[in-house]
Amino acid sequence: MTAPTDRDLIERSFAPRGAASGDAFGELVSRYQTSVFNVCYRLLHESGEAEDLAQETFMRAYDRLHTFDLEREFGPWIRRIAANLCLNYLEARKATAPLDEERDADESSRPEKQIEVKERSAQIRAALLSLPPQYRVVVELRHYQELSYDEIAQELNLPLSDVKSHLFRARKLLAEQLHASD
Amino acid sequence: MHLTDDQLNEYLDNETTERSPIEAHLASCDECAARYSALKTLFAEIESLPDLALSSNLAARFTPTLNLNPQLPRWLTLTATLQTVLALIAIAFTAPSISRFLAPILQAYPMPSLNTVALDLQINFAMWTETVRSFQLPALPSGILTLPHGFSTLTLSVSVLGIFFIWILGNWWLLRKRPNSLA
Q1: Which residue has the higher pLDDT, B122 or A21?
Q2: Half-sphere exposure at residue B24, Cβ-oriented, CA atoms within 13 angstroms
Q3: Among residues of chain B, what percentage have pLDDT more than 70?
Q4: CB–CB of B49 and A42 under 8 A?
Q5: Which pLDDT value is given to residue A21?
Q6: Where does the pLDDT of residue B18 fall: very low under 50, low under 70, confident under 90, or very high at 90 and above?
Q7: More reliable by pLDDT, B23 or B109
Q8: How many CB atoms lie within 10 A of CB A89?
Q9: Closest residue, chain A, to B64 (C-alpha)
Q10: What ipTM does the predicted assembly reach?
Q11: What is the pTM of this model?
Q12: Could you say which of B45, B48, B179 has the minimum Cβ distance to residue A59?
């Protein structure tokens, strides 16, 4: 028996609230929780907050599931909800938090290599953390969610020129930060 | 003339249609080629961030919240509907016998006619409206409460009503149901 597709699970989740719809949506959460958590973590850099926001993302998605277009893919949709939620959260918070210790999903490589990768990852995360929230979200949507300039403008309700200037300035700042730490 | 930062960024993002002139320039200009290479390295570095593992299973946290109001099994719902229908049929069949059984008891306690009940209601309603119409708050002794100049009792009443509504809205806002919110 093949595993149900995302579309099957979404259709089952439409059923009146109960065990069956909860289980179907729970399966969707299991499938996408790591990627949604990582969107939140890249933007917030604090694992507790990222987990809370990831959970909030799924709660929002469940409430808005009736608006989801079944012809589209669920993963990009929920990751964009997460990015928007984090942006709102960051703008409300307007403060930075200390970086967490890295807990990589892949822990199988050599210890020296792991340390090197962790150090560089920490530098990149620190550089991302230094960006203003709007820049950080544009980088997230472009580099990790692979949205086009037009899609980012639509998603964030920004003019195309602002998307470009945010993205290019963000890259410039990141390059300066990373070269300074080399 | 060198390539601008915007041109390089748009080229690497595949967001420009003028690729050939940019490629031709990169092939002939070492400075722009070096800037292009540095930007490409930056892209690779940004995208090299590893995914982190979650410390807990969100699905486990999430599913019980949705199951707070589990649905009754379908067979039980159908049984309850069938029982209701049967009970209504039984009442319809037994109503004549029950009324014959209750007739002597009801005769011992004469019931007022519908006209009497309607008349009583009308009298009570008229008395109530008269009481409300003629109601007056007791007058305060002069000098105890003096409203500021230009501040009428109507303004006072509207203000008190406004404060009451704000209080109700405030309570609603504080006690509204928030599903597992971060706030």
Answers
A1: B122
A2: 5
A3: 83
A4: yes
A5: 63
A6: confident
A7: B23
A8: 18
A9: A22
A10: 0.77
A11: 0.59
A12: B179
Output the six-digit token pair for B123: 């009298």
Question: With contact defined as beta carbons under 8 Å apart, do A57 and A33 qualify?
Answer: no
Cα(A111)–Cα(A104) distance, integer angstroms: 12
Name all domains of chain A by residue range, CATH numbers in brackets: 1-98 (1.10.1740.10), 108-182 (1.10.10.10)
A138 vs B: CB within 8 A: no
> Quick one: average pLDDT of B163-182?
74
- Give the three-state DSSP class for B52: strand
- Number of A/B CB contacts below 8 angstroms equals 124
Any alpha helices (H) in chain A, and if so which ranges? 6-13, 19-44, 47-63, 74-93, 111-129, 133-139, 149-156, 160-181
Decide: A131 and A173 in contact? Cβ < 8 Å. yes
Closest partner residue to A51 among B42, B56, B179, by Cβ?
A: B56
Please report, for residues A36, A52, A63, A68, the alpha-carbon distance to residue B66 in angstroms, rounded to integers and kept in the order given: 19, 17, 11, 19
- d(CA A150, CA A15) in angstroms, rounded, equals 35
Q: Quickly count: other Cβ atoms within 10 Å of residue B67's Cβ.
A: 17
B62 CB near a chain A CB, below 8 Å? yes
